[in-house]
Amino acid sequence: MNKFTSKVAGLSLAMLMGTTSLVMAQTVTIAMSPPSVETNRYWNTPGDFNLAPSMQGLVGHDPGTGVYDNSGLAESWESNDDFTEWTFRLHPDAEFHFGFGPVTAADVVHSVALHTGEDSTLIGVAQLKDAKVEAIDEHTVKFSLPSPQVDFLFAHGGRGSLVIYSKAQFDAEGIEGYDAKPAGTGEFQFASRQVGQGLSFDRVDNHWSGQDAKVARLELRFIAEPATALATLLAKETDMAILPRELQPDAINAGFEVLSSSNAANQTAMLFNGTFLTEGDEKLDPTLPWLDIRIREAINRSIDREAMIDVLYDGRAQILPVFAMDPRHEGYRADLVEKFDEYYGYDLEKVAALLADAGYPDSFENPVIPILSSNLAGNPEFPTMAELMQVFLDEAGFQTEIVELDWAGLGALRRAREAKLFHPMRNMPVKPSAVGIGNYYASSGRPNVNYEDPIIEALNMEYRASINPEERDRLAGEIFEQAFEQYAVAPLASLSTEVMMNPETIAGWQFPGVTSAGVSHFNLIEAK
Amino acid sequence: MLSRLPLFPIAILLIVLVIPALFADWIAPHDPYKSNLRARLEPPVFFGGTWEYALGTDRLGRDILSRIMHGARYALGISMIGIVLGALVGTALGLISGYLRGWVDILIMRVVDITFALPSILLALALAAVSGPSFGLVVLVVVFVIWGFFARQVRAETLSLRERDFVARARVAGASGTRIVLRYILPNIANTIIVLATLQIGVVILLEATLSFLGIGIPRPAPAWGILVADGRQLIVSAWWISLFPGLAILLTVLSVNLIGDRLRDWLDPKLRQV
Amino acid sequence: MFRFLLIRLSHALIALLVITILVFSLSHLSGNPIDAMLPDDATPQQIEELTTHLGLDRPIVVQYLTFLKNAAMGDFGDSLKWKGQTAAAVVLERLPATLKLGGFALFLSIVIAIPLGVLAAVHKNSFIDSFATAIALLGQSLPAFWLGIVLMWVFSVTLGWLPTSGLGGLSHMILPAIAMAWFQVAALTRLTRSAMLEVLDAEYVKLARVKGVPEAKVVWKHAFRNAAIVPLTYFGVLAGSLLTGSVVIETVFNWPGTGWLAITAIQGRDFPVVQTVVLFFAVLYLFANFLVDILYALVDPRIRVS
């Protein structure tokens, strides 16, 4: 056989046997569930961005504490006294991959325009849409906002609405350039995308930050079926896998280890949607059983949260006292944590008394509690959660039914303010208090918000207008207290993001848990 | 006569499908919806478990055996209703198509083609997205999938029967089309319909299981067999019993139905061997 | 014969048109894609802008006619979920994967089922016959999704012989192809067996034996050729069932083909892609049946002559 034929034979054999890559030194493969939208255009995703290893926003996070730091593209920033002007100074050494030059203010302006365009489906982009962006000089950008935004950095961080693309690449290659091979600024650069299968990234040598990534190649494999993802880990086809909690014991028993985010990354709760208690709200359905606070309290007290954490999270979660409240953000009230057992503790006798007092079910026109079972990427426990809630509520004496709807269908109902369901919700990553309060407790979050009452309305108006940190902290705390005492929702658990790793090939990975995917800081993955 | 009956499959069918479907409320050891959170993920009795939960429990501590027994009624119900409706629709249209011929025949057969060309699973997915999964939806999809088989076979037989002497004589005697079809043709194809129906039961049960597995079949929390297999999908490595036993129930049921169907066909209508 | 084929072709085209109407209405009924695309905190203004941008505010008949007009020119719209790609591109990218897997499954079915069916008929009531019947029965009774999961766990995780999932060469295709082909092998075996049994009973076969023709020739040259028409006509149905089978199998084995695409697109409410996938499959199915019609016409002299 001559050389050519033998090459062809070799290639055919390789293709036939399915070996897809030559053996590479130090490739780390991670199995994860597919993103909701597979595209290189961040603004066309709802916020779960798969190019996190190679693209960055202005603001980074400390891998340990999660606090904003300058590991992003901004070296420093400042705001004026009333938080209506924010100025960012870019790292002078920052540059784009593939030779597209240094990062300048023009790139930021260009990226803002892309992210706020009419085809943008990105979460939180409202914060940016009304902003005026100008390039003050090569490395300084100023955002002028119509109203004060104390939490403006949130829009630029790990769960932000802005990632910086290269204007030079756009000018040279158009949007097709982004679709084919987008230039970023991260410690990894985009290598290739196999739609439906995954993404590959290569390390950038001599990265402008001074610290190169620790592995040579990163491969993300998208696997929708959790049992299949587990199979790839056990068969050692992948080095790490992001698995639903209930599969982790199997991996642990086989000798794999858990890597946890350094902070709580996700909060879960069940919402009493439709609790619109402000005056004259035409969307209020007066027959909803949980409009009666005794029912909300009774439902809360029917949930054995410790058992729930065992069942849903393999015991590795904390009970959450107030949904959207977190020690790292404004309004954290330790006293509410102390009082949790007193107000929300599992107590079936108390439930019976409350139900009798409220006259359930006879005095209720519609006593049935509709529990939503739905699928949401990133929270595979939601269908089980629905069944578990039904178990708890049935035992406590409630009449229940399970309603199956996909997450998009729920979104449609919420937007129409017609989601009359007891449904799961997650707060991932844990957002700043102002955002959380707006999403779940106040009319500023309309049309999607699930609970409103006049007291929180008044407090929230003051809160949103205030720019004094102590005042804001106090007001947020009062809002959380009201939500707590009114049983506005059924808070469930606070969890960190967990990744299963193969200790034979991975030494470690530190990530704070502040992104939609839970994981970040891929440059800190250390192989053995 | 008795020795000609396929006793073994009939027995299996009775044990796995019919008796549980009819009497689950009385013979199931536990309430299929009741969960015992302290007895989660218990293995079956010969693999480290106890007789109390003979086939083990699922992630919420519910008894698998009781759930399988209660799930039988969905398999039985869907197959009975689906088959009857599918046979009715298919036979009616097959008769019309075969007897009238002409453009009616062409139209109906094209509709059959279209039915076969549309992937049933995707249709079911789309319908479920519109109205949510329901028992009615499953029946609709089942009828959609199987009526074509009846229509085609009935049409073929009607076409040949219609040329026979006794039919010609009836026509000459002035009998109306409807009367001819109902009085002369239908009784002659009854055997075919029965055999076809029996052979389709397996298809229907598998279809229901697949739909429930995908989450668009019988709605939760009903313990339909497909849902039970789906429940154990994620835990297949450590809690294999959750998926295995319902899968076995499906397998045994369809197997016995097919065996019985085969015997029935050999007995009643051997020319259907090609079906 | 030509006339016969022309008629069949026109029927196929009509069927296709009806399918487009059905698919279009169904996918639009199944929900608003905007709901699947927007984040939870979308403002009413964002929703409005996106609706207009996607042309979803036009009346449904207008949308359908636009779709049809464009489709005739090969433009099936842009994917809503895989931004930056057209629906046709998205489907075409994944089609080879399904064809590869489906083709392999088909190949397996033919290679296993036909010889098995023939042998079972020839050696009726022997061990081979019982074995073939058992396989056939088992195959038609096993849920494919369950089989797929079990196969993966036995062969990939426990034994480590084959990779668990994903796109790849032969080793990646074996398990999903077996899971897909199982049912087909069963049906085809039974069909071949019963067709052969009928033919082996026929006069001309007995005549050939009496004339002293060697048994193997009798079986394969005379009997099989005539029996083959039966499994042949089944191929149309086989082609159709490939998609139904691929939807679940591709999800379990993470094989990025059109079945997986269809489920993902429906869940993501990506109309253009859903429509395109179903249309492609309808076309494939109708084309396969048309091929069968041609073969029928070639083989069956009655049709050739008329």
Radius of gyration of chain A: 25 Å
**Gap from first CA to last CA of chain A:** 41 Å
The name of the CATH architecture of chain B is Orthogonal Bundle
User: What is the CATH T-level topology of chain B?
Assistant: MetI-like fold
* Overall number of structural domains of chain B: 1
* Major beta-sheet overview of chain B: none
What radius of gyration of chain B results from the CA coordinates? 22 Å
What is the tally of beta strands of chain A? Answer: 23
**Quaternary status of these chains?**
heterotrimer
Percent helix among the residues of chain B?
A: over 70%
- Number of helices, where a helix is a run of at least 4 consecutive DSSP H or I residues of chain B: 9
Largest interface, C-beta closer than 8 angstroms, per-chain residues? A-C, 55 and 52 residues
**Class based on secondary structure composition and strand pairing of chain B:** mainly alpha
Strand content of chain B: under 5%
**Averaging pLDDT over every residue of chain B, what do you get?**
84
Summing up helix and strand content along with how strands pair, one would put the structural category of chain A as alpha+beta
The general outline of chain B is elongated
Point out poorly predicted stretches of chain B: none
Report the end-to-end length of chain B measured between terminal Cα atoms: 26 Å
CATH superfamily of chain B: MetI-like
